[in-house]
Amino acid sequence: YVRWFLVVTALKEALEKRGVLGQIRANIRAEVFHALDDQSEPRPPLSRENLLINELVREYLEYNKYKYTASVLTAEAGQPEVPLDRQFLVKELNIVEDANAKSVPLLYGIISHFLRGGKEESTQSILKGSLLSYPRQNLGKPPTEQNQKGR
Q1: How many angstroms separate the Cα of 1 from the Cα of each of 8, 9, 14?
Q2: In angstroms, rounded to a whole number, what is the distance separating the alpha carbons of residues 62 and 99?
Q3: Which segments constitute the FGFR1 oncogene partner (FOP) N-terminal dimerisation domain (predicted)?
Q4: Structural domain spans, the chain
Q5: What is the pLDDT of residue 99?
Q6: How far apart are CA 126 and CA 133, in angstroms?
Q7: What is the CATH architecture of 47-116?
């Protein structure tokens, strides 16, 4: 028993050092979700807004290599298996991108825009007439010195 415990502990440490233990756990969770997902219960149709939001999130997840999380989102939300074309998203959301913005997910540009208070042109993307209208309270304002000291 002690040998088995030592082998399992060493294996766990090796997988953690290689950074794959989290991926294995995520894969197991995704597979459990797929096994438990009740396909007999139809999903409500996706609204246009939910479809776009889910695609923005999926693009972010895939960019950051969260592929198992993306697969769970796709299955659970009833998203199409094939992602929507980025140019379609850009057009639907009225986003104008510069060359630098095309290398990162659209969410980065959207967040950057709103962190700047939505007033200045972002170096990553410019939103004009977007469907997304969030309250601007505390967005784009740097934390106070007092908050920074506590970090």
Answers
A1: 11, 12, 20
A2: 20
A3: 44-113
A4: 1-37, 47-116
A5: 79
A6: 14
A7: Up-down Bundle (1.20)
Please, what is the end-to-end C-alpha distance for the chain in angstroms? 44
pLDDT in tens, the chain (151 residues): 888 888 888 988 898 888 888 888 888 887 787 777 666 677 778 899 999 999 999 999 999 999 888 988 888 888 888 999 999 999 999 988 877 788 899 999 888 888 887 654 544 444 443 433 333 333 333 333 333 333 3
**The two three-digit tokens of residue 22, written as one number:** 């989290």
Beta bridge partners of 126: 96
